[in-house]
Amino acid sequence: MDNPSRLYRRELQGRFLGLRFGAAVEDEFVSFLRETQTRNVRFCIWIGLILWMGVACWDVARYVQNIQGTANEAQFLKLLLPARLAGLLALTGLLIGMHRRLWGRWQHVACLVTVSVYCITGFLTGYLYMEMGMGNAMAGSILILMAVFLPCGLTFRETMPTTAALLVAYLLAGWWILSPAEWSEFWAIASLLVLCMMMMAFSSYLRERGTREQFVLRRLLDWEAGHDPLTGLANRRSFQKHFEICLAQARRDDKTLLLVILDLDHFKLYNDHYGHKAGDRALQQVALVLEHYAARPMDLAIRLGGEEFGLLSYADDAKALKLRMQHLLQQLQGLQISHEFSPTATCLTASIGIAQAEATCTTDSLFQQADAQLYRAKNAGRNQVCGPDMDMCAEGPELQVMA
């Protein structure tokens, strides 16, 4: 997989004018949007519910004062009252579903359906008041249409077709309910709605673009704060946090927790003779090899600093890990990184120490144990693996030693 840092930087350079990341980052962004917008969605739905109930109370007052006993009473009870009730039920149902987490990954779809019901019922009630000759209530349609652009977790690409569909619904409802004499006023309001939709769409575009930029910047900073920029492995900061989680889990599940420290042999000599750029390339190659040994969810490959690497292995056996580390030394030999100035061998080698965490162990004490095993490996001639319950250090692959 590509380095996340490179992915984020690439997206920043593209400026995402089309409001679309690459597939991997886009999935991240949409998930982030759904998670972070939940509170905003609830707030907006509550506001909509309060406003809707206020308008419903206003309807009841107007019914008692102006409609009851008139020719409009049947139309009010058969059409306007059910429309108000539908909007109320839609908003209430969405709030209950969100509180009980019924919607899950389909929450944005539930929001979309609710907003649509809310808008369409708002259009219908406005038309009915016009038809009953009780004033122009359609100016409120502008506010209703704005509900689509409120922060309900919809992206710009979802908002535009939704708004267009609601505009069509608005036009069809007017054509169905209003008389020809009222169409001139209707078209004037429709034109105003289109203009407002364009303005809100542009505002929505700018808002999402800003959100995307902040998302990528934050992810980039978070990733770089926890990873080594040269190799892409976790750094000491990430290791400390992950170690505490793994240690607590190991105590709870009565599992082992092992720390591997890998130190490249005579790497200062390598840098002195081949240059630091060649040294950086060698470190990156070693990191790629080590990363394959942290394939399980709780494992973590780390660059501790300089030419020193680490591997945190959860629920593992020391002897099995020792065999894998011997295989790692063989893979390093297979890289054929020439090191003709090494007193140990003609290619780059490493020494490895393994320590097992005890129940009361801390990061420092575990490092001290692993360092002690690493020094055993170095004292035994380097290119070795040493660890707990090992009477002797296990040698790496046979290499040609310099005379």
From TrEMBL:
CDD domains, A to Z: GGDEF
Record bears the keyword Transmembrane helix: yes
Record field: catalytic activity: 2 GTP = 3',3'-c-di-GMP + 2 diphosphate
EC number: 2.7.7.65
Membrane-spanning ranges: 43-64, 76-97, 109-130, 136-156, 163-181, 187-206
Lyase among keywords: no
Pfam families, alphabetized: GGDEF (PF00990)
InterPro entries: Diguanylate_Cyclase, GGDEF_dom, Nucleotide_cyclase, Rev_trsase/Diguanyl_cyclase
GGDEF domain residues: 255-390
Keyword tags: Membrane, Transmembrane, Transmembrane helix
Highest taxon listed in the record's lineage: Bacteria
Alphabetical list of PANTHER family matching this protein: DIGUANYLATE CYCLASE DGCM-RELATED (PTHR45138:SF9), REGULATORY COMPONENTS OF SENSORY TRANSDUCTION SYSTEM (PTHR45138)
NCBIfam families assigned to the protein according to its UniProt record, in alphabetical order: GGDEF
Name this protein carries in UniProt: diguanylate cyclase
Source taxonomy: Bacteria, Pseudomonadati, Pseudomonadota, Betaproteobacteria, Burkholderiales
